[in-house]
Amino acid sequence: MPRSVNHVASRARRKRLLKLTRGYFGSRKNVWTVAKNTWEKGQQYAYRDRRQKKRNFRSLWIQRINAAARLEGLSYSQLIGLMKKSNIEINRKALAELATNHPAAFRAVVEKVK
Known about the structure:
Distance between the termini: 87 Å
CATH topology: c-terminal domain of poly(a) binding protein
Radius of gyration: 26 Å
Largest sheet: none
Structural class: mainly alpha
Order of helices and strands: HHHHH
C-alpha cells in the first residue's frame, strides 16, 4: 500500500509561515528551512526583548531623573534617598516625566525633600 501524505495540510503549514516572513531579506523570506529558522529566532528575540524593554525603560528614567537632579545640585541616589526619608512615593516613570516635561513640578519635589 502506498504511503499517504497529507500534502494539503503540510503546504498550508508552510504557506502560513512563509506569509509571516514576508519582507525579510533574501532567502529568509522564501526558502522554507531558512525562513523557518529565521522566524523561530525572531520569536526568541521577541520573548527576550519583552522583558528587556522593561529594564531599558527603567534605566532611561533613572538617567533622566539623574540629569534633572544634578541641575538642582543633587545626585540621583541622594534624591531617591531623601525622597524615601521624606516618605514621598513617586515612581521613577512619573518622576522622569516631571523631570523632562514639567521642570517646575520636579523642582517643587526637590525643594520638598531638601
